[in-house]
Amino acid sequence: MPELNRDNGPDAVGVVIDDLSLSFGETEVLKGVNLTIEPGEFFTFLGPSGSGKSTLLRAIAGFGPTPGGKILIGGDDVTDLAPWTRNVGMVFQSYALWPHMTVRKNVAFGLEERKLPTREIDQRVDEALNLVGLLEFADRRPSQLSGGQQQRVALARTVVIEPRVLLLDEPLSNLDANLRVQMRRDILDLQRKLKLTTIFVTHDQEEANTTSDRIAVLDQGIIQQIGSPIELYDEPVNRFVADFLGTANLLNGGVAMIDGNTVFKSDGGMTIPLANAENQSGDNRIAMFRPQDIAIQLPDCGVSEGEVAIFGKVNHREFLGSLVRYGVTVGEHIIAVDDSHSAGRRTFETGDDVVLNLTVKQVKILFD
Amino acid sequence: MKIFSRSNWGVTTLGLAIAIFLIAFLIIPVATVVVVAFQDPNTGELTLINFVDFFNTSLFQESFFNSFYVASMSVVLATIIALPLAYFTTRFNFGGAALIQTLGIIPLIMPPFVGAVAMLLLFGENGSVNLLVSEWFGFTIPFMEGLNGVILVESIHYFPFILINLSAALLNIDRSMEESAQNLGASGLRLFRRIVFPLAMPGYIAGASLVFLKVFDDLATPLLLNINNMLAPQAYLRISSIGISDPMGYVISVILVAFSLFSLWVAFLALKNKDYSMVQKGGGGLMKRDLRPWEKIGCYAVIILILGMVLSPHIGLGLLSFGTIWSYSALPDAFTLEHYERMFSIAGPFISNTLLYAGLAALIDVILGTAIAYIVWRTGLAGRKWLDFIAMGAVAVPGVVLGIGYLRTFVEFNVPIVDKPLASWWVIIVIALAIRRLPYALRACTAALQQVSVMLEEAAENLGATKARTVRRVVVPLMTGGILAGFVTSFATASVELSATIMLVSSESDAPLAYGIYEFMQSAAGRGPGAALGIVAVLIVGIATYASHRVIEHTEKKRSSGGITVAEQTGAV
Fold first, then answer.
1. I need a labelling partner for A293 at 20 to 30 A (CA). Which of A44, B168, B188, B506 fits?
2. Considering only residues 396 to 455 of chain B, which have any Cβ-Cβ distance to chain A shorter than 8 Å?
3. CA distance A94 to chain B (A)
4. pTM, 2 dp
């Protein structure tokens, strides 16, 4: 596949967000956001709707109310610059292709606004359309293309101007499931090829995990945690991150010393010994462990080294194909437990007495 | 919306220019009229004496009552015409639906006053219908007797307002509304009374109050039918016979504006908080059933009767324009082209004036309309809502009031180069038409702008286009259909406007077509050529309306062609 000629283009640049806050009238949408995105990085803003992730992205592009704080792109302060002077390319959720222009006209738009010579515009539009595999559709109108094709036109229209940063606002949410997986690989390929600093906004953790170098998890206008997908999953810093990325058992309670051992006592009557729990004593603690950190067994099974046995009763189960997810009643809690599944493997029924073997060192204590 | 100093400056200038135009040509003239109505004509002090005089004069009492009576009865008659038509299209699977839609457009392409004289010849005491009726049954029906004539002509012209609003309201009721009521045990009349009626009511009220407003304010129809004891004709006659210092014309103007505002307020209350956006995808509309054969015959009978009424002004006008002598007979004695020859030999300037005035007015309207819509919906300019509000407020100003206001305000304002008062310069007619039609154009432009997603603009800005460039390359091209529709609506209605222009025409050579028709129709000998000129007016409006439909259809088609047929192509990037 041909490549855009990046030889003359600028090198990848970083983005720094410094204490950014922003309100719509009375409503504070961003509350003091700090971030550093490295040159060439694929960085994701992940959060539920209303978390401020799209607002943050739009602020980088120059849309929305004027924010407090600073936005630096490649070291330049762009906070007060108009959108059309920033040279950051944005792909909109609904693609925002202009229906009155052909595909070629759409892609040429940004170059025309930059007043490049016609010959260069033609050449670069061809290259960009070729890059996304749509050269033969150049003379169609957007309405004559499928959703996936429109998405690629939007991408071509954005990268053809050689933006300093590529912004993607939930670009996959309007595609069907199969196409979404294909598209996200294609976008990642393109990003690696063009070495473009890219910021991706999504509410879908799978999308975030599969594409990103690093992720910032946002909730209520505040960055909850920044890290690689694996770091966020394994070492969440709070209840929100633990719960938002994957499934977690989260028990409220306190950490105390009993007979020289550190123990977590939940409000619902569960006691878990802790392996490494320095400086974690006190009330208002959360014990976090994932469903796959527990083995579900018949009550008479033994316990291995480093495990603790917890007795309970199966409350319900969900069959998910590669695994069975049980809800097991323990005290006042219902603990989620994953048991991997293959043909002929034993399953439990609702009401069965079971023992849960929890690997102690997987239990994380979070501060509430 | 972020405000950048550079683009902000441009928007502020534009907004200010529009505000000055609206203040000069709408607010000041109307305010002048109101102030004069409350002033003692001799001392200039504020007083209610003019209103006391007004209500103590029996002619004015009668006029006030007549105007109110005519407007109310027109609403009733228009409802009687519109109700069955709306009902047929929304409740039955019915082949005549297209016919009904046509019925809803035909009256609008001919202003009521143009057909008024022809209606006299068809339905008057010695008109075609009554001649036949008296021959067969020995009595006559007073269709056109006095106020009845105004009521009949106005309701035939304005019933589409009710038809359109009521049909839209009924079509908006989702089938699931009706089905869930049935599911919960309601049916028949109870279902209609508790679900269908309340949901359709706001649409009906909105249409009905518009009809009331239009009829109450209309000057030309009563004038043509020679009915002078109504408010608008009285205002015109006082000003044109006694002069612009007579306070009664101003008092009547204030009453007309007050009633217009009142009907708009009723419409606003009816529609407020009643945005029942009910139609879900795929559903829509009430349950429709097929008609039994005898029901079908009944429906068609009603439709043909109404079609006959709706077409009668057109038919009458056509007969009048081609007929030689038409008096005390069902049809003209013979047919001739003489009236057209005579009309074309004199009426050339009328036609060219009309095309010039209406064209310029419509152009002003779409420019203002686009600018106001953009400022209101896309910028943060302080006071932007007021621009919209004032421009739409022109709906509540009857033509005769605007005319009186212009005369009073601009009579001493001398235009430098042409060296005559602005009030008697032809340009003032263009401005009056532009102000009168601005609400229609503004509504069309606003609707068009709201169809353009803000994201399409942001995408352009993101790729390097400034606000101004974005407007030029993205916003305006995407609004073309709506702007064109606004232009044609303004043009078509302005080209047959009479009430404001009749006050502002200062010499025959500046007069537009509508004024010409009025002049011709004053004498028996002029009726033939007047009707021929009326036919020209109908053709201009009809062709403009048709052309806009075609253009809008064409742009819509181009926008969405082939969108569905192209198969999903899932190739690698």
1. A44
2. 453, 455
3. 8
4. 0.80
